[in-house]
């Protein structure tokens, strides 16, 4: 650790290492008040320090910089208001601004306030003018419709004219009739074009109406009904000459209002465009300021109130960069006193930090979704980069489907920069984030598809001609008994002659089932071996002798032996029944094997392996609790405050223990925990091996579905010799292939591969109870939603 620390201070970053997380350190920074803001700003640009909240007992309103945060929140509110207005006006904010934005938040606060006041005033005036314009349009419609009526039919009665929403016109008429007991005359005329309602500002279809009545009582009832139905009323003169004059006056006023409204909209558009040119810079500045003050609130004031004291986690390699940032901030702020940087010693568990790139980050996310690695424990993400897409491809193997996946992924990768700058919907964003995972899945699918020799379920003689030929002309539907070997063995993958034969399913079933067991046992062994590297790294010898060794013996005595038998059977071409061998290895271990013997001394080897498997169970269960008890007693003899450091619950010596006196060692709890762990491993060895058979099942299902779509859709349509049926068949085949095989089957195989990694592989060594390194970084502000 000392070497790493001294190397980290040299200014150059060590090479990226995904196998174990970066070495971390707890640091303390003492910053003079006058340079605090600039210091935190420079650390935010660096993005390699995770601050601890030293004021967690205080409420947000009791903290030092509560007023500044409130000011930033108010500026953020104004910016959100501007964004809403720009969206309504269809104006986009410019990413690159030609003018320089204000870096002074006080000046920006004043500027935003002035702009908001101006925009609110423009909006208020615009709304008033628009309402007046809408009222005049409706008034003009009333005048035009009523003038078109025959003057000789007009009766000397009181009347009210206006517009009512068309959808309410029938109810309006019924209500008038009932309220006045039929003592009114209502006349309606349809307005051809939708008009803007002065009250709501929305376009709606309306009818012009005029109600003739007699008496003040009827008039009051009609006015109330008009208000209830949202009918806008307008004055209407009975004299024809005055009506024509009114129309002329209204038309003139409409023209003036239209000119005024257009000028207002132009001014508003120019103002919003000015805001849009600098919006992104202002928004980023406000976000930065807010995050700086939030971070400053996590620091504590010293007793003199002249310095701020902060603590946080940083990678060891970042020491020199942090010190440089502190020196630069002190110089730029003209501070007479520089910041003090020192490393603290702690027993607290540090955060986990892996430096990933755009390729490895998605694979690391797959692991982190299960649980973040404990500090410095072996990271399954390194192996996941290869094993995850490979196990997916075992289930998805078809090089035609693999090419389709590859082409789809290449589109995302080619348009990477453009898509990264856009806001995508959830599903597209998830697919884009995992583009390199899908790329690897596609490449491995092409590889396994070539091994299975399947292109949309059709075999091809790619690498050579088939090694087999028929004995006579009638053997096309025969089993392999009817075939004779006429050439060298097919050089790569499955011989195409198997496809379409009666023995295709039994042969491929046997091949894929045994291959699944081999892959499963290999991956589980890898998991147990990684537990050895963890125990070695953290110097926990008891885990090597009482966990790693018995586990590796138990797994390989049973399923490692089964894997060996499978390989021997393939090599020798033996007809031995492996089911019989494994079952009677337990039921009758002393019986002769007869035809099922694959190598000399097999019976003795089985007895030895069976004995080792039985011995390894108590070996896992009994010694470890007693050894831990002895270690605890030895550690606390003559010592008062030494914490227990190496337990099964902790992979590291410096774990989060508080040394407040002697620790309690509950032997019964440790023993029960070890017993559960042992039972889980023994039963899991069987169930996990069986779980890998999903590779066989999913591969078989994919192959059979692909075959059904090809034979029962495409070939069937081809057989009709009808171009229309063929086109329909091709369309159905494409939709079935894309919908079922390229979407549903991809998702299914992905989830099964995920389960195999999370449960069958990672439970052998991975604790995953750490927490992520979350540094204060301006680079992460763009991902945050206000």
From TrEMBL:
- Protein name as annotated: V-type proton ATPase subunit a3
